[in-house]
Amino acid sequence: MTQVRDETPVLDVAGLSQRFAGGSGHFWAAKDVSFQVAPAEAVALVGESGSGKTTVAQAISGLQAPTSGTVHLAGQDVVRLARTRRGRRDLAGRLQMVFQDPYSSLDPTKPVFQLVEESLLLSGLSRPQRHERVAESLDIVGLDPVQHARRPRELSGGQRQRVGIARAIAPRPQLLVLDEPVASLDVSVQGQILQLLDDIRTRENVAMLVIAHDLGVVRAIADRTLVMYRGSLVEGGATPRVFAEPAHPNTQGLLWSATAHGQQAMPTAAKIALATDAAPLPLADTGCPFRARCWRRTAECDTDVARVETEAHWFACNHPISASEEVADRVDVTA
Amino acid sequence: MTDTMPTPIQPHPTPRSVLRRVPPIVTVASAVAVVLLLWAVLVPLLNPADATAVDPARRFTPPGPDALLGTDHLGRDLASMIAVGLRTSILMALTVVAVSGALGWLVGAVGGYVGGVTDNVLGRLMDVFNAFPGIILAIALVTVLSPSYSALVLVLVLVTWVNYGRVIRARVLSLRREEYITASRMYGTSLGRILGRHVLPNTGDLLLSISLVQIPNVMLAESTISFLGFGLQPPQVSLGLLISSEKDYLQTNAMPVLVAGAVLVLACTSIATIGLYLRGKER
Ligand SMILES: Nc1ncnc2c1ncn2[C@@H]1O[C@H](COP(=O)(O)OP(=O)(O)OP(=O)(O)O)[C@@H](O)[C@H]1O
Ligand code: SF4
Ligand SMILES: [Mg+2]
Q1: How far are the Cα atoms of A36, A126, A207, A230, A260 from residue A74, in angstroms, in the given order?
Q2: Which residues pair with A226 in a beta bridge?
Q3: Phi, psi dihedrals of residue A233, rounded to the nearest 5°
Q4: Packing angle between helix B78-114 and helix B116-131, nearest 10 degrees?
Q5: What is the ipTM of this complex?
Q6: Got the DSSP string for A127-151?
Q7: Is the pTM here over 0.90, yes or no?
Q8: Of A193, A129, A128, nearest to A166 (Cα)?
Q9: b or e along A250-281 (b: 16 or more beta carbons within 10 Å of the residue's beta carbon)?
Q10: Which 3 state secondary structure label does DSSP give A228?
Q11: A302-311, B49-58, B147-156, B256-265: lowest mean pLDDT where?
Q12: Which of B127, B213, B206 has the alpha carbon at shortest distance from B174?
């Protein structure tokens, strides 16, 4: 799962920044975000609410042009493509999105078959070719023909999300961007959808960028995990490695919070620090974005952050938690 | 592979389960509307073609076998006159509603979807039309244009389209944030296609319920304007004209005015009741 891939990446995000106007002036919703996704690789983007995950996903999908930085999909400039309708048609053949809300993402007035076909309407395929693709995609996601004429209202949440996934895989994209694909589903259904996504990845050879706040979801599906805090990526690496040996205090905090066991194991100093209110940082800030909530912070963190990079793991922290450290807290979220 | 624990699925509403939930007043209103519609369609077919011709010899015939409701002061068969008047009214209302619905939908949908300057300009336009007192504007305009069927249709469109525009715009403002619209945009779908494929079907319920409220409004406005002499002109037949021409005989022969008035009121209230019920159900 963690073999080094030397092919050209499907997705190449470089220096992506997005500035928004907030309550108290401007802030970076995404700040110098750079990462790549290899063909057929599944990468997870995790972080607390408001950390900028959706902002990054929207820039990657061409829904919102970034303030600066570039996004390349198989060598093509997404930002430029997304500017024209013709470009978006091109883009839709390579990149598809699965939305969080299977209610809002499906037109309630259309039957399942038509809903799935919409992603192919401008693909240049003939009608019979489209119909064949739609039937095939619906078969892959496990919706039998009885359900093809149903409308979203007549489907369960899990079935709706299957329709959304079928629609996204029908154009045979190289990259699927999934923004919280299971967050709105029953826990019992979540596992099935994750399994389905994993099957699709191997079967269709499609790369995935999965956004999730639930670390269990990430563990189940991602080869690699990126952790985001306040617009910045703070840690990244092979999923098992990041989960077993988190180096950044933010990652450790997320892991602690993920389980009841972890919440108990959390040292008091960390508990207090993590619960601190953190004001937005000024645009020109160069220090560590996590410092207001960090229990390992020193004076140097106010101005600089060191970036440490090893083969399967990197992090941006001056005082990372080392693997040998006696942490009462190494908790496996799936344990 | 199916989900073991599906979230609750809304069942297909069966005709019977729908009927059971309809309040009695709406059932009555629907029945009245159907009866009046049948009257408008069937009575002229059953009666001789010249039943609405002027025939001084048959002046004020009392109700009987060859004139079910009697005749008016010109000897015209009252039941037939009312049927033809209803037809005129309904056809005009449908025409007006079709045109103003299309216009209002287009302005509301484009403004709400596109937003920005376009929406500001279209919104201002709707404010202007909304500020006019409907029927007075209609009378003023139709007088300027000189009374005729098409002039009446035109002015009624001008005073009703905003009712569609405003409501449709409000709905589209929330529709455009739906993820299926976002998805469609991502596929490179054109504005026209998005409006036709997603916005129109998802505003169909509004078009229906607004129309059911606008139809009686238009029928009433047409009758009023015709009654006042600014609308349809004889020999055209309209409920308003009928009431107008028979009002001088109210003391001696009240039947034509009473029946025509009652039919107009029943037609308008029954359709409005259905419309208001549907509108209430949307919330
Ligand atoms: N269009 C916008 N204008 C202004 N601020 C925005 C805009 N979109 C997002 N934001 C802000 O940017 C920050 C990042 O938002 P984003 O939606 O990317 O977070 P997220 O990680 O996806 O959070 P969640 O897990 O809650 O979905 C938030 O503070 C949000 O309020
Ligand atoms: S750089 Fe400093 S403040 Fe930031 S996470 Fe590391 S120790 Fe904490
Ligand atoms: Mg989000």
Answers
A1: 11, 25, 11, 28, 42
A2: A45, A236
A3: -75, 130
A4: 150
A5: 0.86
A6: HHHHHHHHHHHHHHTT--GGGGG--
A7: no
A8: A193
A9: bbbbbbbebbeebeebbeeebeebbeeeeebb
A10: strand
A11: B49-58
A12: B206
Distance between CA atoms of residues B158 and B220, nearest Å: 16
* B68: nearest Cα among B91, B89, B42: B42
Q: How close A101 comes to chain B (CA, Å)?
A: 8
Determine the distance from the C-alpha atom of residue B216 to the mean position of all C-alpha atoms in its chain, rounded to a whole number: 5
First to last CA, chain A: 20
Whether residue A324 has its Cβ less than 6 Å from ligand 1 = no
Q: Give the number of other CB atoms < 10 A from CB of residue B219.
A: 25
Give every CB contact of residue A187 below 8 A, 6+ residues apart in sequence: none
How confident is residue B16, by pLDDT bands cut at 50, 70 and 90? low
State the pLDDT at residue A335. Answer: 43
**Are the beta carbons of B178 and A104 separated by less than 8 Å?**
yes
Report residue A7 as tokens: 């092919």
> Which is nearest to A97 in space by CA: A62, A148, A132?
A62
Q: Compute the C-alpha angle B224/B240/B105, nearest 5°.
A: 55
| More confident of the two residues A114 and B237 | A114
DSSP per-residue letters across A235-268 = EEEEHHHHHHS--SHHHHHHHHHHSHHHHHHS-H
Among B2, B190, B197, select the one facing A85 at the smallest CB separation: B190
Chain A interface mutation, best of B9, B175, B178, B187, highest count of A Cβ atoms under 10 Å = B187
What six digits make up the tokens of B178? 């739906």
Tell me which residue of A289, A259, A207 sits closest to A32, measured CA to CA. A289
A232 phi/psi in degrees, rounded to 5: -110, 145
Crossing angle of the two packed helices B255-282 and B24-46, in degrees rounded to 10: 140
| Cα–Cα distance, A150 to A135 (Å, whole number) | 14
Q: Which two tokens stand for residue A315?
A: 């992090």
Q: Which ligand is nearest to the CA of A49?
A: 1
Beta-bridge partners for A22? A25
Does the C-beta of A61 come closer than 6 Å to ligand 1? no
Q: How high is the pLDDT of residue A61?
A: 94
Least confident of A278-282, B7-11, B208-212, B278-282: B7-11
Q: What is the reported pLDDT for B15? A: 56
Beta-carbon count within 10 A of A48 CB: 17
Least CB–CB distance from A192: residue in B3, B179, B188? B3
In angstroms, the separation between the Cα of residue B22 and the nearest Cα of chain A is 22
Q: What span, in angstroms and rounded, lies between the C-alpha atoms of A280 and A287? A: 13
Residue A204, amino acid? E
Q: What is the pLDDT of residues A39-64, one digit of tens each?
A: 999 999 999 999 999 999 999 999 99
Other CB atoms closer than 10 Å to residue B282's CB: what's the count?
A: 10
Average pLDDT on B99-117 reads 94
d(CA A115, CA A149): 10
Q: Does residue B4 have a pLDDT over 50?
A: no
Query: Is the backbone of residue A269 left (phi > 0), alpha (psi -120 to 50) or beta?
Result: alpha
Sheet harboring A76-77: ordered strands across? A25-37, A11-22, A68-73, A76-77
- Assess contact for A149 and A111: CB atoms under 8 A: yes
